[in-house]
Here is the input.
Amino acid sequence: MSIQARVIDGKALSAQVLDEVREDVHALAVQHIYPALAVVLIGQDPASEVYVRNKLLRAKDVGIRSLEHRLPQDISQQQVLQLLARLNADPSVNGILVQLPLPAHINEQAVIQAIAPIKDVDGFHRENVGGLVQGGDVLTPCTPSGCMRLLYETCGDLSGLHAVVIGRSNIVGKPMASLLLQANCTVSVVHSRSVDAPALCRMADIVVAAVGKPQMIDACWLKPGAVVIDVGINRIATASGHRLVGDVDYESASSVASAITPVPGGVGPMTIAYLLKNTLIASERQRAQRPISYPTVG
Ligand code: GUN
Here is the structure.
């Protein structure tokens, strides 16, 4: 007997998160505090253009000031680092995001590590990555943070659940595994060298797919009743043009999972909502100069 999975509506939940952010922004405006996000886009990667446009639109929507820095494809790494030094030193800038990927001649790590950790709204700086692994209340990467909110809304307490993360990128897979561990899940990370990835995945109560391979994960990978979070956004050709699909074969997986995020309308909108939430958190930290707090280990 096949079940029909519940659709996890990321659009609706992100609207709720954006409402929370908007309310906080209004409360700050009364005190004449105006949080600002600097977005740096280098070159003309079409997907990055779309992502950045959406981020700027949403920022405007909730009343966060955004400062757009569009740099030419052939800009030198030195010039990028100089811009970041200026943004780091500017007290009117609370969050800094450099859209990835970068042109091949620019070293991604050199750029990420040049962002002041307290303004690193992507949570990619090693100080924030290390803080996340140790359970500190640091700025955490936006996509995994959005996925966690979707999971809490769907499952409630995650303690003791077995979560399988498919993919081990710095942007999604690794921080996702850290957040799930923090939430007391048993966590496995499956990747291209894993032996029998579908069998490992079939043990999971929660599956987070972040591999960038269109519709790779189908019903055969899932335990009946699993909750599926699909991070993939892949453009595939169709007879009439193109469409977006996830890393999960939605139709097939829906017949086995208990709940699943659609693409589009699942994880994507949550990423932007958490970017803006991080901008508020960053601006609050900068005002309070608050040190990171770490839990006592239990
Ligand atoms: N490119 C793809 N995803 C991301 C992200 O979350 N942040 C940045 N800065 N670039 C990206």
Observations:
- The mean pLDDT is 96.
